[in-house]
Specification:
The complex is a heterotrimer of chains A (217), B (367) and C (841). With 217 residues, chain A is of the alpha/beta class. Chain A has one domain: P-loop containing nucleotide triphosphate hydrolases (Rossmann fold, 3-Layer(aba) Sandwich), CATH 3.40.50.300. Helices cover 37% and strands 27% of the residues of chain A. Chain A has a 6-stranded mixed beta sheet. In chain A, strands 2-1-4-5 form a 4-stranded antiparallel beta sheet, with helices on one face. In chain A, a hairpin with a 2-residue loop joins strand 4 and strand 5. With 841 residues, chain C is of the alpha+beta class. Chain C has 4 domains: 202 residues, no CATH class; 174 residues, no CATH class; 239 residues, no CATH class; 170 residues, no CATH class. Chain C is elongated and about 100 Å long. The chains are: A alpha/beta (217), B mainly beta (367), C alpha+beta (841). Chains B and C meet through strand 4 of B and helix 3, helix 4, strand 5, helix 5 and strand 8 of C.
């Protein structure tokens, strides 16, 4: 369970987030929409443990971020979080399968041991036949599907997707969003989709609006 | 003759101004070199005395004379070969030991050029590159030579811009100067040389000027003199003449000048044609300067016209050209005047000869 | 020029990388310039000295060091071609009680005036002012006097003496007391010369009947070439007619070979600089792809883009070249002041050259800098210009990694060409083929670097910690970055390793050689200089009679003139066994044949084509003697060649009974120091010098090490700059990879893990470079030993690879590269970098 209580963050005196509260249970998939600059990415960074709040609480499955060291937060990400980025961030010097296996490597699986699960994940996103390809040989949509497979490879408790369709054409965007929703639900994880597209947000279970006033449905 | 001793010293190495070395007790003292002395009463014998006398310190064969080119225009010439026993290297077994040196000066006086053409050679007697012989006249350095062939002398010179090959034929026996060839040079008994002349030498041969070879004829004078002694102290220079008179007689006269310009010693020999030579005492000889010429190169004033009194006779000397200065300061450093002169007596030309003047510039340094 | 800010501004943005490229080019240009300027100055000075000595001489007749028969002088002087001839006896002697040496010429002052007036002595006027008439021969013929010597101003300054003072010289085992009578106004300003009368030198230095040189002035209108042929025909064997310039050329050849090594070092730095430019440009070009695509899209032509990118490299090269020549001149000045014209190698002793500014040479070195910069920028520029703008606009940075496997076929072809170049014979005495081979090896090696990187990647373990797996995957999939970073390392390591192998082999061989060449327990010689020192027969007997001496081997040194235009070959006569086993032989001895044996050094074999087993004619004592070449030995002391014959044979053939030095074996129980003292006591104090081989060996190796110390230092600088290049390229790369690092942090890699990954990437890149560099360095080292040194110095050496040093060197370099990569990546791992994955802040 992800619990966010009275979260505030300011940069150089500019208040970006104020008293954000959110509670999400496993299997819940929400979309957060908002204007540019309203603090969507700041919120994601705080949830990812890459940034610390000025006040308020964050806890995932009962672990309070405030109690965790940076290394512990890194391990938290490694074990329980999955990410999908707007620019894919697929490593160009790893094959498609290696990219998907990367989170498994981090969990300690050897290269060979990780290959099986990675292949299954690729099958699941429809790229089973591209496992040995290099990222540069893929289209944008395919690349994002690899990223989705990677985000779910290690069975995360929480998947964060930050504008995953920002670099895609509408047709591909729809496919990817559908796939993302399907995979998150299938994994029983908490999913947070950050987007500015209301159309895309509708693929989530519910839509939350982030404004200067706070987070609300 | 002292004038020749001094000239020799100049001609050999005058540029090198040596400080007299203080004797160094650490240096091995070389055994003293004993030169043959000039003693009165020695009879000169010929042909033996035509040759070299290597036991004496210095010796020279000195030919001067007037030449005529085919077109009749006059030239003066000078050929001098010096032999020097240096007193050095007497114990050194090296071929190059500098015991005997040969030095030579040659010049052509050409009125059309207005100054002398001259050149010089010097070498040690080694490996046949330079040498001399005894018993007859033969002395050479490189391809320059002066030698007696049969009864004539042959002078061969190839210098820069000029050269000559001359045959000099004497008309009679040698003319012994002084007391039968013992020639006093000063008041002291040691100041003397053996000295004879060959006047009235008939010359024919070729002269090469700027690569052009021309036949010449003329009349010349040869001195052969050897001695071991040095200039008397206080001598600054000298004047000398050797004249072939038109009537076949011959005149040699010289005087030594002191630092104040006053004469220290003089002497003369006058030999009538076919007659017996007469030596004149110092008081019978007087030199009087008439006209001066200043050298544009050295700034030295030379008395180029003279009146010379020989006994009762008075001769007027006039140069073939004023500039007969021999300036070789850049090579050997000698600066003197050696030139052809016309000789008149009572307004009539009576002969031609050579005049030599030294010591009119800087004080002469010997060695 | 309107686009200048667009391109040159880029140089300013990546200051560190630009600075390192610049530094390497400065170093290369400065080093090359300095060596060139120093050498130029020394040669000019040497030539001036020679010309002044030769004066107007048209030709010079030279023989062996022992000279030739003096009758030749009369023979030549009498020839119609010869206007004037000047005989000379030249000895190199030493002051008593001092290490100063002096070149002493015995001359005939009368002959000098017409041939070499520059040598005319001028007696000093010490102001005695004595009356001319009163002095006698003492002063008149100063130069002819046996105890008078005239010193050039340089010699007076160097020896601290002035006219009027005494001077003591070694002559044979005697000392000779002379008086300095004056100077040599015409002698070259910097030439240490002394002049004496020829007869005195002949007598005092045991040269009676001998001349060492005759200077000739030809008759006007005579053609020197024709005269040379005509006159050579009448000369005895071993006496040659040379144009006076020949010695100058010989000196140039001699020191040119030495220059080879220093120029090599300059090349290392310059090539490294070129590769650093390459690294920096390659990365910069990758990063700016979108920028270029945009420029191309708005109408910049492909050609202009290429030219501008080339200009970026050329600009660094120009700056480096300009600063380099300035630094080079400063360096040259310093070296001339401290080390002298031969940089301490001893080829131009007695000279103090002055530095001159030579516009052409200077411009050439600036041009070399520009060339290095432009060459480094060439490939990246071409790469950037060939990319299609549409593709580049679409793709992100990461897609533009340099990949592929280079051009292995071309690389192998160039390597093969390099191998073939080793067989090219030297051109004009220069090992052109060797240098060509070195260049081919470097070029081929760089082209094969991607292949090597791939090979290394394949060998890497698949498992292991994640950072290692990521680093390995990166090397496998995208060797481009590693290759770019490694190229500079490869080149500098290859050249440095080659030098290290060459120097180690050389030192090892010299060490072993010294052991063989110095078998005796004590060595005795007259002064330091053998030309003026000799042991006459009486002295030899006195030495033999010293108690405690078991065996004594005398050596007589002379020289042979075997061909015109060539430096003389040293001749050593000493007792040699029939099979020559005591010599450092190369190959088998062939000690058969009825003729006396001659043992030649490798240089003689190379220069004159003599082979073991062959019969040769050697000029000894003025006539050709048939000798049998019994074997070839190694001589590190004389690169112009040397030959040995048995002392008994030599004495029988020449009648020369003098000795130059002696090796002494002690009787059992004899104490070396006591015997040494007894030996010294057989002659005047200070005349004989007795040393032991350990001392000679120590000195020799010390000189060797000192000579090469500068080499090590410069190598270290070059490698350091190469390493700095790795750091610079990783810094550039790290900046480009900020997003990748950010993503990895999201994925849960700790900072330390990313640090490790970078360290391993750095180590891998450097490792590939070092590995390639060592392989290449071994090959180049072999080329240096077998081709360049052999052809330059004419001596072989045994290969000695300094494994230990190389291992330390390689390990250290890799560790440093890893550290450099971590440091470079540090900036990119800061927290804000993690956030770089977000594009919509």
């Amino acid at each position: 369970m992800l619990e966010i209580t009275n979260l505030s963050r300011q940069f150089n005196g500019r208040r970006v987030l104020q008293d954000i509260c959110l509670r999400l249970h496993p299997g819940e998939y929400v979309a957060i929409v908002g204007e540019s600059g309203v603090g969507k990415s700041t919120l994601l960074n705080l949830i990812a443990g890459l940034d610390r709040p000025d006040s308020g609480q964050l806890a995932l499955d009962g672990a309070h971020y405030a109690d965790l060291s940076e290394d512990a937060l890194t391990h938290l990400r490694r074990d329980k979080l999955g990410f999908v980025f707007q620019a894919f961030h697929v490593l160009p010097h790893l094959t498609v399968r290696q990219n998907v296996a990367l989170p498994l490597w981090l969990k300690g699986l050897s290269g060979a041991a990780a290959d099986g699960p990675a292949q299954q994940l690729l099958e699941a996103v429809g790229l089973g036949n591209r496992a040995a390809s290099w990222p540069r040989e893929l289209s944008g949509g395919e690349m994002q599907r690899v990223a989705i497979a990677r985000a779910l490879a290690h069975g995360p408790r929480l998947v964060l997707a930050d504008e995953p369709t920002g670099n895609l054409d509408p047709a591909n965007a729809a496919t990817v969003l559908a796939l993302l929703a399907e995979r998150i639900r299938g994994a029983g994880a908490i999913g947070i989709l950050v987007t500015h597209s209301l159309e895309g947000a509708k693929t989530a279970d519910r839509v939350l609006h982030l404004t200067a006033a706070g987070l609300h449905e | 003759m002292h004038r020749r001793t001094c000239l020799l010293a100049l001609a050999s190495l005058p540029v090198w101004r040596i400080a007299a070395a203080q004797s160094d007790p650490e240096l091995d003292p070389a055994p003293p070199v004993v030169f043959d002395p000039v003693l009165p009463g020695r009879t000169l014998t010929f042909p033996a005395d035509h040759g070299a006398h290597p036991g004496f310190r210095t010796e020279w064969w000195y030919a001067t004379g007037w030449l005529a080119l085919p077109d009749g225009s006059p030239l003066g010439f000078q050929t001098t070969f010096f032999r020097v026993r240096s007193g050095l290297g007497e114990q050194n077994p090296s071929t190059f030991a500098p015991r005997q040196l040969i030095l030579a000066h040659a010049a052509i006086a050409d009125p059309r050029l207005g100054r002398l053409r001259h050149d010089e050679r010097a070498a040690r007697v080694a490996l046949g590159r330079a040498g001399f012989e005894s018993g007859h006249t033969k002395v050479w350095v490189g391809d320059w030579r002066f030698e007696q062939v049969d009864d004539r002398y042959q002078a061969e010179v190839r210098g820069e811009g000029f050269g000559y090959s001359l045959s000099l034929v004497p008309d009679g026996p040698p003319l012994l100067n002084g007391a039968a060839g013992f020639s006093a040079k000063g008041p002291g008994p040691r100041d003397a040389s053996y000295y004879y002349s060959r006047p009235q030498l008939k010359v024919n041969g070729t002269v090469t000027l700027d690569g052009r070879v021309q036949a010449v004829t003329g009349l010349a004078w040869l001195d052969h003199e050897w001695s071991s002694e040095y200039l008397p102290q206080g001598a600054k220079g000298w004047d000398w003449i050797g004249v072939n008179l038109n009537d076949g007689s011959a005149l040699m006269a010289f005087r030594m000048r002191g630092t104040d310009g006053a004469p220290i010693w003089s002497a003369a020999t006058l030999k009538p044609a076919g007659g017996v030579a007469r030596a004149l005492a110092p008081d019978a000889v007087a030199f009087e300067q008439l006209r001066h010429w200043r050298s544009p190169r050295t700034g030295i004033d030379y008395p180029v016209e003279w009146r010379v009194r020989i006994g009762e006779r008075r001769f007027l000397l006039q140069p073939l050209m004023d500039d007969q200065e021999l300036d070789s300061r850049r090579s050997t450093g000698a600066v003197y005047w050696e030139g052809a002169v016309r000789v008149t007596e009572n307004g009539r030309e009576v002969g031609r000869g050579y005049l030599e003047m030294t010591g009119y510039g800087e004080k002469i340094r010997v060695g | 020029m309107t686009l200048a800010p667009v391109f040159f501004g880029s140089l300013a943005r990546r200051r560190v990388a630009t600075l390192f490229s610049f530094a390497a080019i400065v170093l290369g240009v400065a080093l090359g310039m300095a060596v060139q300027a120093v050498h130029e100055a020394a040669l000019t000075e040497f030539g001036r000295g020679l010309r002044a000595m030769a004066g107007d001489a048209d030709l010079q007749v030279e023989g062996p060091r022992g000279g030739f028969e003096e009758g030749l002088y009369a023979l030549l002087a009498a020839r119609p071609e010869v206007a004037a001839a000047s005989p000379v006896v030249e000895v190199e002697t030493q002051l008593v009680g001092s290490l100063d040496t002096l070149q002493l010429l015995g001359v005939d002052v009368f002959a000098l005036a017409r041939v070499t007036p520059a040598l005319l002595p001028r007696p000093a006027d010490t102001g005695s002012g004595s009356d001319s008439g009163a002095t006698d021969g003492d002063g008149r013929f100063a130069i002819l006097e046996e105890d008078r010597v005239f010193l050039s101003a340089a010699a007076q300054t160097a020896l601290g003496v002035k006219p009027g003072e005494p001077l003591r010289l070694h002559a044979g085992s005697q000392s000779l007391k002379l008086r300095i009578a004056g100077d040599l106004p015409g002698a070259a300003e910097n030439r240490r010369l002394a002049v004496m009368d020829i007869a005195a030198v002949q007598e005092r230095f045991a040269k009676l009947g001998r001349l060492t040189r005759i200077d000739l002035r030809l008759t006007e209108g005579v053609e020197p070439t024709a005269a040379r042929v005509a006159l050579q025909a009448i000369l005895p064997a071993g006496v040659l007619i040379e144009a006076p310039a020949a010695a100058e050329n010989q000196a140039a050849n001699l020191s040119r070979a030495y220059r080879v090594n220093l120029t090599m070092l300059a090349a290392i730095a310059l090539v490294t600089g070129g590769f650093l430019v390459f690294s920096a440009q390659a990365l910069s070009v990758v990063r700016r792809r979108t920028e270029f695509a945009f420029l191309r899209a708005i109408g910049l032509s492909r050609r202009s883009l290429f030219a501008w990118l080339l200009a970026e490299g050329a600009l660094i090269g120009l700056a480096g070249g300009l600063v380099g020549v300035a630094v080079g001149h400063g360096l040259a000045w310093g070296m001339l002041t401290v080390l002298g014209g031969d940089l301490g190698a001893g080829y131009f002793s007695g000279l103090t050259p002055r530095l001159q500014f030579r516009p052409v040479a200077t411009a050439m070195y600036v041009a070399l800098g520009v060339l290095a910069g432009a060459a480094g920028a060439f490939l990246p520029a071409r790469e950037a210009a060939t990319v299609s703008p549409a593709q580049a606009l679409k793709a992100g940075d990461e897609a533009a990694l340099l990949g592929g496997h280079g051009h292995p076929r071309l690389g192998f072809a160039i390597l093969a060409a390099g191998l073939a170049a080793c067989w090219i014979t030297p051109v004009n005495g220069l090992p052109i083929g060797g240098y060509l081979a070195v260049n081919c090896l470097l070029a081929g090696g760089v082209l094969l670097l991607p292949l090597l990187a791939a090979g290394v990647a394949r060998l890497l373990p698949r498992g292991g910690p994640v950072p290692a797996r990521l680093a390995a995957a990166r090397l496998t999939a995208a060797p481009g970055h590693a290759v770019v970073a490694a190229a500079g390392v490869l080149v500098s390591v290859a050249l440095a390793a080659a030098m290290a192998i060459m120097v180690a082999s050389f030192r090892d061989s010299v060490d072993a050689w010294l052991g063989q060449i110095l078998p005796a327990e004590l060595y005795l010689r007259v002064g330091k200089i053998s030309s003026a020192g000799f042991l006459d027969e009486a002295q030899q007997e006195r030495i033999k009679a010293v108690p405690g001496v078991r065996e004594i081997r005398f050596t007589r040194e002379d020289s042979l003139r075997l061909a015109p235009g060539r430096a003389p070959v040293a001749l050593m006569a000493r007792p040699i066994s029939g099979d020559g086993h005591e010599l450092p032989l190369v190959g088998a001895a062939r000690p058969t044949g009825g003729a006396p044996a001659i043992w030649i050094s490798e240089a003689v074999a190379d220069l004159y084509g003599w082979r073991a087993g062959q019969s040769v004619e050697v000029p000894l004592a003025g006539r050709q003697v048939a000798l049998h070449v019994a074997g070839v030995w190694r001589d590190y002391a004389r690169q112009t060649g040397s030959a040995m014959i048995d002392l008994t044979d030599y004495r029988r053939l020449t009648g020369d009974r003098l000795a130059s030095h002696a090796g002494i074996f002690l009787a059992p129980g004899a104490v070396a120091d006591q015997v040494a003292d007894a030996l010294k006591a057989t002659a005047q104090p200070g005349a004989l010098e007795v040393t032991n081989p350990a001392f000679i060996r120590g000195i020799t190796l010390r000189i060797f090490d000192r000579t090469f110390a500068v080499t090590y230092l410069l190598e270290a600088v070059a490698v350091g700059i190469g390493l700095a290049g790795v750091a610079a390229s990783f810094a550039a790369l790290a900046a480009a990879r900020r997003r990748e690092f950010g993503m990895l942090r999201h994925l849960g890699l700790t900072r330390r893990q990313i640090g490790w990954m970078l360290a391993q990437e750095g180590a891998l890149a450097a490792g590939v470079g070092v590995l390639g560099g060592l392989l290449l360095g071994g090959a180049i080292g072999l080329v240096l030993i077998e081709v360049v040194n052999r052809q330059s110095f004419h001596w072989s050496m045994d290969l000695h690879v300094p494994w230990g040093s190389l291992a330390w060197f390689a390990g250290g370099l890799i560790a440093l590269a890893a550290l450099a990569a971590v440091l470079a990546g540090r900036q990119a791992m800061r927290q804000d970098a993690v956030l770089a994955v977000r594009e919509d802040w």
